[in-house]
Automatic annotation (TrEMBL):
CarD-like/TRCF RNAP-interacting domain segment(s): 7-117
Transmembrane segments: none
Source organism superkingdom: Bacteria
Any one GO BP annotation for this protein: rRNA transcription
Pfam families for this protein: CarD_C (PF21095), CarD_TRCF_RID (PF02559)
Annotated protein name in UniProt: CarD family transcriptional regulator
């Protein structure tokens, strides 16, 4: 078995790429198929889900500690940038957005949030665009909330305030003079 590079303690917040922010609630030893396994037991409150991850697989599945303050600042700066909307088919863009969300990379998730945000004075989003936007925004807000020790709603409000402020700047450029 590989040496344990990652080590999480009970009570630590962790990020599991496919599910977002969870908390290590216990370390378990189990015998599965005749092998002794040590498992992290993760609890995802929002989804009301418990996940068991073998300690030796934590790194290979992309499980990580909460982002550093530097990475969070970079993600927040990304939100302030000009949205990049590719003119490719929606199904292709949707796949790319989902891949970014599931990568667990905070800056990539922030890019999805920025690119799919619609201010009140902008055209409506399609249902699938809104679903992907909400998934990305929720993932970003949960990590921000866990880092700042606030709730997801408070963190989401902070993200939306940043997006509205930057949308006002970039939409002003488009307004007819």
């Amino acid at each position: 078995m590989a040496a344990k590079a990652l080590s999480f303690d009970v009570g630590d917040y962790v990020v599991y790429p496919k599910h977002g922010v969870g908390r290590v609630i216990e370390l378990q030893k189990s015998e599965i198929a005749g092998m002794q396994l040590e498992l992290y037991v993760l609890r995802f409150e929002k989804e009301k889900m418990t996940l068991r991850v073998p300690t030796n697989k934590a790194e290979s599945v992309g499980m990580r500690k909460l982002s550093s303050d530097k990475t969070m600042k970079e993600a927040m700066e990304t939100l302030k940038g000009k949205p990049k909307v590719k003119r490719t088919m929606w199904s292709r863009r949707a796949q790319e957005y989902e891949a970014k969300i599931n990568s667990g990379d905070l800056v990539s998730i922030a890019e999805v949030v920025r690119d799919l945000f619609r201010a009140d004075d902008q055209p409506e989003q399609s249902y699938s665009e809104r679903q992907i936007f909400e998934a990305a925004a929720s993932r970003l807000a949960r990590e921000l909330g866990a880092m700042e020790e606030t709730d997801e709603k408070g963190a989401l409000d902070k993200i939306l305030d940043i997006l509205r402020a930057s949308a006002a700047i970039y939409n002003k450029d488009k307004a007819p003079a």
